[in-house]
Amino acid sequence: MKIPNSVTKIDKRGLSHEQWLRARNNFIGASEVGTILGLNDYESTLEMFHRKVSVIDSFKPEQLSTYSGHCLEPVIYEKYWKFYDPSNPTHERLVENAVARNVMRTARRVNFTLVSKEYPWLSCSLDYAMDPNRFTEPGPLDCKASLSWVSRMYEGDVHPGYLAQMTSQMLITGWQYSELGFLLDGRYPSFIPVPRHIGIEDAIIKETKKFWEMVLEGRKIWQRTDLSESDRLQNLVQFEPEITGSHALEDYLKERYKSNYKAGRMVGTPEILECAIRYLKCTEEINGIDTKKTLEGNMLRKLFLDAKIDEIMFPDDKNKQKALISYRSLEGKPAVLRVSKELLKLV
């Protein structure tokens, strides 16, 4: 299948997971774009900047969640997506097609990392490329495993980071259409079309270009042999992404400090004093808000207990009943209260 845009292909076959990750460090991958846009709950922009500059190792051992996701990609495609009928998008129709081996559409594996020639800092590795037929336009197919209660937390049941990833893939390849294939709770398939969005593409181009220019400047400093590591780190600060209030950044800074801990003292400045006072005031406000939040949460928990239920339904903007509050225990763990932000639209 011909890719509309001009791209450079890097063959992934024969590369180990570690080799592929290190090679990808020379570009911004589509799955990394969400981090730059502040949409990643698990990695901060600063951590990614340090990886790209080589302050920290670019290799991350694969975790169970990502390993499971990779294992399920062919399952989602082979057992579900192929038999999904967009003209009759019911689970019953999918199962009928699967039992009868009635393939509704096809896609193919892409064994290359694709690098944009127009935006040479951007790359993507597709799970599958969809073949065009009467049901499906050509374009990227990305297969993901998720939990239904997680999906319901986001507008359209899609994490905005996934939308950034798919938009990046279409920006690089030039295809006008893509799909996200979910397997929810290990059994429920969900296929969501993601068409191109010029506004999101423009934001991706602007923010990733700015980030990559900072990475290239940072590399010049980090590769200098006439400076000590301490001096290189000090010079690197001017190109680092700004500090944000993300928990991912908090976790990264804690880990960096733990691995680089040294005893020492410095004299405080007025700027540091102001920052510390703001921190104390936030702590006081949080303590008050946390008590109020716990009160409201306990009222909901008592309601669930008394009614012996695990979901509360509300009509969405299309007047369809949708579970927007849940309280359930998974695998014997303590019950977790989930309240969807979509409720704010109903007020």
Which characteristics define this entry?
alpha+beta; 4-stranded mixed sheet; 12 strands; globular
Explain what the structure shows.
This protein has 347 residues and is of the alpha+beta class. The protein folds into 2 domains: 195 residues, Lambda Exonuclease, Chain A; 77 residues, no CATH class. It is 43% helix and 18% strand. It has 11 helices and 12 strands. The chain has a 5-stranded mixed β-sheet with strand order 3-6-7-8-9. It has a 4-stranded mixed β-sheet with strand order 1-4-5-2, covered by helices on one side. Strands 10-11-12 form a 3-stranded antiparallel β-sheet, with helices on one face. Strand 4 and strand 5 form a beta hairpin. Helix 3 packs across helix 8. It is globular, with a radius of gyration of 23 Å. The model has no long low-confidence stretch (mean pLDDT 90).
In short:
With 347 residues, the protein is of the alpha+beta class. The chain has eleven helices and twelve strands.
Shape: globular
Radius of gyration: 23 Å
Low-confidence stretches: none
Helix content: 40-55%
Treating each run of at least 4 consecutive H or I residues as one helix, how many helices?
11
CATH architecture of the largest domain: Alpha-Beta Complex
How many domains, in number, for the residues?
A: 2
Largest sheet: 5 strands, mixed
CATH class of the largest domain: Alpha Beta
CATH T-level fold name of the largest domain: Lambda Exonuclease, Chain A
The average pLDDT is 90
What is the helix/strand order? EHEHHHHEEEEEHHEEHHHHEEE
Output the structural class: alpha+beta
The share of residues in extended strands comes to 15-25%
**N-end to C-end Cα span:** 48 Å
Q: Provide the spatial order of strands within the biggest beta sheet.
A: 3-6-7-8-9
The counted number of beta strands is 12
Oligomer: single chain
